[in-house]
Design goal:
The protein is of the alpha+beta class and 252 residues long. It has three domains: 136 residues, Alpha-Beta Plaits (2-Layer Sandwich); 48 residues; 48 residues, no CATH class. It has nine helices and nine strands. Strands 1, 2, 3, 4, 5, 6 and 7 form a seven-stranded antiparallel beta sheet that branches. The protein has a two-stranded antiparallel ribbon with strand order 8-9. A hairpin with a 6-residue loop joins strand 1 and strand 2. Helix 3 runs antiparallel to helix 4. It is globular, with a radius of gyration of 25 Å. The chain starts with a helix and ends with a helix.
Length: 252
């Protein structure tokens, strides 16, 4: 069994990708994200038909220690803000971290939120390097539009690849780049199980979703879900609408 599931070869010589059995793999590390999210941040990514593996790690932090450290940090930064021996850029950065720390402490003390460390990795794979580069650029654009700032895992491809396997391995070499804090309420935006497919348990195969390539199965005689068994098929001339409909009737 080990000989059947093990790859014939693994090439780790290139710092930009991994080659395994004529497949190329490259990783992305999410290094920052917008704090305020109105929807699921991975929804647009999961709905694509790009071949990828996504891994998310959460590490819950001790609330007492976090609040203690935040209080100490707020006091020190407050002194720096009031001092006059800093330039304008340093003051702006200090004010930002000061307000951020106060916000987190307030949410933890007043709203009983917990603080977590969040790590997100994406591993993309394709049959050739050109396709792999195209997929990486597309994913980077999608994630940037959702406020997710990514970094390519050059020289750390193996670590990201292993992080996206079901080993629960979050290597320290990539944790330093990926670690970001998130409150309990923010965890909802990272929910990864999203499906826009249309699937009825006793349905018949209709076709594929053009947006995410998922299969569509419809049980048009399910009166609990559909009011009647009527069906309407849209398509351009010559797209074989009649053939599809006859095929559906034949299967029924």
């Amino acid at each position: 069994m080990q000989d059947k599931i093990s790859p014939a070869y693994i090439n780790l010589k290139n710092p930009k990708y991994i080659e395994i059995d004529n497949m190329y793999y490259a990783g992305l590390i999410v290094v920052n994200y917008y704090r305020e999210q109105d929807e699921l941040i991975l929804k647009s990514l999961i709905e694509t038909n790009i071949n990828m593996n996504i891994s998310i790690f959460y590490e819950k932090q001790d609330s007492y220690s976090v609040i203690k450290d935040l209080t100490y940090h707020i006091g020190n930064v407050g002194v720096d803000i009031n001092s006059n021996n800093q330039n304008r850029q340093d003051i702006d950065l200090a004010v930002y971290t000061y307000n951020d720390a106060k916000y987190i402490r307030k949410e933890m003390q007043v709203n009983k939120e917990d603080l977590y460390f969040l790590y997100i990795y994406v591993n993309v794979y394709a049959e050739d390097i050109k396709e792999l580069e195209y997929c990486l650029n597309k994913i980077e654009g999608i994630m940037q539009a959702k406020g997710l700032i990514t970094k390519r895992a050059n020289f750390r491809e193996e670590q990201v690849f292993r992080a996206c396997l079901p080993f629960m391995e979050n290597n320290i070499d990539i944790k330093k780049s990926a670690r970001r804090n998130i409150l309990t309420s923010g965890l909802l935006s990272t929910y990864p199980f999203i499906s826009t497919s249309i699937f009825d348990e006793n349905g018949i195969f209709i076709g594929r979703n053009i947006y995410n390539n998922s299969l569509i199965f419809i049980d048009r005689y399910n009166t609990n879900k559909y009011k009647n068994a009527n069906m309407c098929v849209f398509g351009t001339s010559g797209s074989r609408k009649i053939v599809l409909y006859k095929n559906v009737d034949f299967k029924i």
